[in-house]
Amino acid sequence: xxxxxMPASASxxxxxxxxxxxxxxxxxxxxxxxxxxxxxxxxxxxxxEERVIFLGTPVDDVVANDIMAQLLCLESQDPERDISLYIxxxxxxxxxxxxxxxxxxxxxxxxxxxxxxQANSVAAVILAAGTPGKRLALPSARILLQQPHSDGxxxxxxxxEIQGREVQRxxxxxxxxxAKHTGRDVAxxxxxxxxxxxxxADQALEFGLVDKVIAPRTIAGVR
Length: 223
Fold this sequence. Notes:
Strand 5 (111-120), helix 4 (122-128) and strand 6 (135-137) form a beta-alpha-beta unit. By secondary structure, the protein is α/β, with parallel strands linked by helices. Strands 3, 4, 5, 6, 7, 8 and 9 form a seven-stranded mixed β-sheet that branches. A two-stranded antiparallel sheet has the order 1-2. The longest helix has 26 residues, at 157-182. The chain is 38% helix and 20% strand. It contains seven helices and nine strands, in the order ββαβαβαβαββααβαβ. The protein has one domain (35-213): 2-enoyl-CoA Hydratase, Chain A, domain 1.
């Protein structure tokens, strides 16, 4: 019987590098005084307290689990209050994306998505999957649309055929999700992602990935 399993090294990806521990700067911690005493925070914990989730890395299994856990926790705290998901991600893998995507569609709170910096490949799908009317981008944000590709597989012909089918399945899934959340038809999305396409914030608005480009905040006395 032919096997449908893929070699571990054959997992299709979207071309995002994964950050090693040595490339991560030290996250500062601070102490906040409250009526109950003092509490120590890092910025991510403080954001979570304000119902803000920050995605600033490639989307892998660990990152996806973190986001899913935060979404479910915030839903349990208050199912009627919005959650904000800020995105500055170079992309990631499809399976973790689908886990995050399904959780976003499952939880009851509206999810505001905000692109600051970049939302590439699978991160662009997360951006588009926010609640309609609440998908935002900062003026200098960039969004990259691209199809999945293989990282170069070696093996038997049957392994290559399995991988080819999986890459095609992933591409079709990405196209369906983008079509669903942008209002475009799948055939048009197929053409749009045939080659990597970089969009500005305004172009992402026109494409239907976001609903609004956020104007810069003005500071008194500064032009």
